[in-house]
Write a structure and sequence with these properties.
single chain; alpha/beta; six-stranded mixed sheet; three-stranded antiparallel sheet; globular
Length: 149
């Protein structure tokens, strides 16, 4: 683990970084909040440790660190510009995907994070749902690539 642009990363290769959960990165004057992970919707058909892992869902420590980093950012008079997650906040699921039965604890955590940053970010980007769809500043990406301003 090392620090890069204000947040924690794992360096996979010289040109590949794994941005850790709950971190805020300052890149080209924009701040990015990251929170990867989501519960596999089909984990009952998978094998633990082989095709799904308990670590796919953010831990309480990672959630706490995200909240602490947001609080520290706000205390410094700064805001989050973009949010990068794997799944989306729970409140968006029935609106975007017409799915109501979602017990993924990650989406609840993202609801909590959303409450802290909802008035400040320009875009929230995620891809877990394997669709290309948008609702205002929320963007589910699957086949698309978007340029951030």
């Amino acid at each position: 683990m090392e620090h890069w642009h204000g947040g924690k990363v794992h360096r996979i290769a010289d040109n590949i970084l794994h941005l850790l959960r709950g971190q805020i990165f300052d890149i080209d004057g924009k701040r990015f909040l990251t929170m990867g992970g989501a519960q596999s919707s089909d984990k009952q058909h998978r094998v633990e440790g082989k095709s799904w892992w308990a670590g796919e869902v953010p831990s309480e420590v990672e959630g706490f660190e995200a909240m602490q980093n947001i609080q520290e950012l706000h205390a410094a008079g700064k805001t989050v510009d973009y949010v990068l997650t794997h799944t989306c906040p729970r409140f968006l699921i029935p609106i975007l995907f017409a799915v109501y039965d979602n017990d993924d604890p990650t989406t609840k955590l993202l609801d909590d994070i959303h409450l802290k940053v909802m008035d400040e970010f320009s875009g929230w980007y995620f891809g877990h749902w394997h669709e290309d769809t948008d609702l205002e500043k929320y963007h589910c990406l699957y086949d698309r690539v978007l340029r951030l301003d």
